[in-house]
Specification:
This protein is an alpha/beta fold. It folds into two domains: about 200 residues, Rossmann fold, CATH 3.40.50.2000; about 170 residues, Glycogen Phosphorylase B (Rossmann fold, 3-Layer(aba) Sandwich). The protein has 16 helices and twelve strands.
């Protein structure tokens, strides 16, 4: 939603009508955007609980075997293109037929939009997306063809059918986080928060400049994961219990000579071992804070990575699940930070100290920042979408 929202705002400001279809719990994200919002999509946790109950049946659909579900890549394919997609399609299609859009903009990991666009005979394009970066387009198209048959659409032989009309991204091509071969993205500069979109809290604005400021975050999706766990679903593969992760962060950074701001997402944290340099906050205006920090201890969500690069902030990566391990590896390859592989408090502290004093990483991040700031503004993305909708040749970024 955070990647789609700026494009929605820019489209509305350009005079276009925009319909956003999403789950009920995400509707407030688009408050004040000017778009029409319809909460018609299923709740993510509900869908995953239902999917978990159907795994044996899914494995017998002719495209997957039970053994396949041990592979994270296949789990991802089923997550984005499994049988549940048909129910979402049936819920969204009537709204789309009534609205009569000229274009579908979808999250990179949301493939119902592909089917709806194909049904209506209009272009579709993906927004910047961490999940989208780790989808294997060829394998996803095989599963998507199963869904096409189930809803009465023509199968597609193009292994890049997910990107038949392209994709959007907010990082330069040289810094792409796409794991598989995909068409080059139309790139634009990610906007900073506009007027009225949060301010830096007074206690953070008052932090002294005598030592580094280090924000730490494990992601805005953590409450969703905890809800999944409460409803009997296992946490994603290789993910530590959230309490263990927060314990390692707090204990590690209490020993580092820096100001620490931990974004908890409302999750309770034991304060017994808090150092005097630690501040716990339910919510932090992260893009603003990153403009004045020397290091970001991040879970490596794609939104957070883009915000850190745009701010020129080096990263210490503590990935949790999904695309985050891939992102951590990629940012280490590009020299924009380091991946914390020893998640003990001492291991976390060691990497944080290393990155804080690594001149080469600072130089690499500043180079990437300049490349990102050189991208055209979001209004060029609007023009690109207008050209797609009008079936004219879109300008390249």
């Amino acid at each position: 939603m955070r990647a789609v929202l700026p494009v929605v705002r820019a489209l509305v400001q350009a005079g276009h009508e925009v319909l956003v279809v999403l789950p009920t719990h995400l509707t407030t994200v688009f408050d004040g955007s000017g778009a029409r919002v319809e909460p018609a999509m299923p709740n993510l946790v509900d869908a995953m609980v239902a999917e978990a109950a159907k795994l044996p049946a899914t494995a017998g659909d002719g495209t997957l075997s039970p053994e396949d579900f041990t592979a994270p890549r296949v789990k991802m394919m089923d997550f984005v293109a499994g049988p549940h997609l048909c129910g979402t399609y049936q819920a969204v299609l009537p709204l789309a037929q009534d609205f009569r859009p000229d274009l579908v903009l979808r999250d990179g990991g949301e493939l119902c939009g592909v089917l709806v666009a194909e049904k209506l005979g209009i272009p579709h394009i993906s927004a910047p997306s961490g999940t989208g970066n780790i989808i294997d387009p060829e394998s996803a198209n095989e599963l998507l063809n199963q869904r096409r048959k189930e809803v009465g659409l023509r199968e597609r032989a193009d292994v890049w059918s997910l990107y038949a009309h392209g994709r959007l991204d907010c990082v330069p091509h040289a810094y792409s986080f796409a794991e598989y071969p995909v068409p080059p993205a139309f790139t634009y500069r990610q906007p900073t928060p506009g007027p009225g979109q949060h301010v830096l809290p007074a206690e953070l604005a008052a932090l002294s400049g005598d030592k580094p400021i280090v924000p730490a975050s494990v992601g805005s999706s953590l409450p969703v994961l905890l809800e999944m766990q409460a409803r009997g679903l296992d946490l994603p593969d290789d993910m530590l219990e959230p309490a263990e992760t927060f314990h390692a962060i707090v204990k590690a950074l209490s020993s580092v000579d820096c100001h620490v701001v931990v974004s908890t997402g409302g999750v309770h944290i034991d304060t017994a071992e808090l150092g005097p340099n630690i501040r716990l906050m339910d919510f932090v205006p992260q893009p603003l804070l990153l403009q004045h920090t020397q290091l970001f201890l991040t879970h490596c969500g794609y939104n957070s990575i883009r915000e850190a690069i745009r701010a020129g902030t080096p990263m210490a990566a503590l990935p949790q699940f999904g695309d985050q391990h891939h992102n951590a590896n990629r940012l280490a390859e590009m020299g924009l930070g380091e991946w914390i592989t020893d998640v003990s408090p001492s291991g976390v502290a060691t990497v944080v100290e290393q990155v804080l004093h690594d001149k080469k990483i600072r130089q690499n991040v500043r180079t990437a920042q300049r490349a990102m700031l050189d991208l055209p503004d979001i209004e060029t993305a609007v023009t690109h979408l207008e050209c797609l909708a009008a079936r004219t040749t879109a300008p390249r970024s």
